[in-house]
Amino acid sequence: MEIPFFPTLFSTVRSLVVRQPFFPTLEDWLVNHPKILGFSWNNGQTPASSQRFLALTVLCYISFTFILSQVSRPSLARPVLKSISALHNLFLVTLSFIMALGCLVSIFSQVPNFRTLVCFPKRTSPSGPLFFWGYIFYLSKIIEFMDTLLIILGNSMKRLSFLHVYHHSMVVIMSYVCVNSAQSSFSMVLVTNCTVHVVMYAYYLMCALGVRPKWKKMVTDFQLVQFWSSFLIMAMLAFYHFTGSGCSGILSWCFNAVFIVSLLFLFSDFHAKNYSPKVKNA
């Protein structure tokens, strides 16, 4: 069985993009580079790929966040903090854009049809361009721990919420699980997440530079759209899995489904508390 509309849309967009004169150049840089094309995830051998590393990294993040939030801390001069924050956000804007573009070009270059994009064949090995960008995505989520340190150093403790710490710690686990299990459809989630993060870190970059954009609410709106789109992607994965011969990484799909449900609930609650008409009129 086939899902209507989306396969035709994917085929049309793919054929349109690959015919563009710039596509071969992007493909050479972001897909066919030997380090990207020859990438292979080997648990315990690829840097940062062991379960021990993952567990220690997340535990250290949670522990240091709790400790630093409770003790007296040396204060950084505001100009220094803003400079560090600006560089950090500029780096993540750039990295998020490159990851989204790299994964998108890899999809159009390597994936023949929509079904394969959503449902990798069983026993797919985590290797090649799609999983290279998944690996970089996983590492970027560790780099994003710096968000929390900047909040603490800036004494912006209202921003250090349960949602913030839960999201930052769990998304590292989710990213690891996706690559380690060769989870189907993760590349689609990667592209949407990185696109949203380009907007989000651009907002924080402008704030660090002394500009306060008026589209803060749009960042949260985009995140909610991302979570709903993730639900749609996971529903299509489940459809292909149960109506076909199965998809790669279905157990990790179950884990990520629960995680995304929790994020949708928490972000919806945050949105209601901060942007509802009652809050605006208060």
From TrEMBL:
Bilayer topology annotation: Multi-pass membrane protein
Residues passing through the membrane, by range: 53-69, 90-111, 131-153, 165-182, 188-211, 223-243, 249-268
Assigned keywords, A-Z: Fatty acid biosynthesis, Fatty acid metabolism, Lipid biosynthesis, Lipid metabolism, Membrane, Transferase, Transmembrane, Transmembrane helix
GO BP, sorted A to Z: fatty acid elongation, monounsaturated fatty acid; fatty acid elongation, polyunsaturated fatty acid; fatty acid elongation, saturated fatty acid; sphingolipid biosynthetic process; very long-chain fatty acid biosynthetic process
Source species, domain of life: Eukaryota
One Pfam family hit: ELO
Compartment(s) where it occurs, according to its Swiss-Prot or TrEMBL record: Membrane
Any one annotated GO CC term: endoplasmic reticulum membrane
UniProt KW Lipid metabolism keyword: yes
Molecular function per GO: fatty acid elongase activity
Descriptive protein name: Very-long-chain 3-oxoacyl-CoA synthase
Native species: Gossypium lobatum
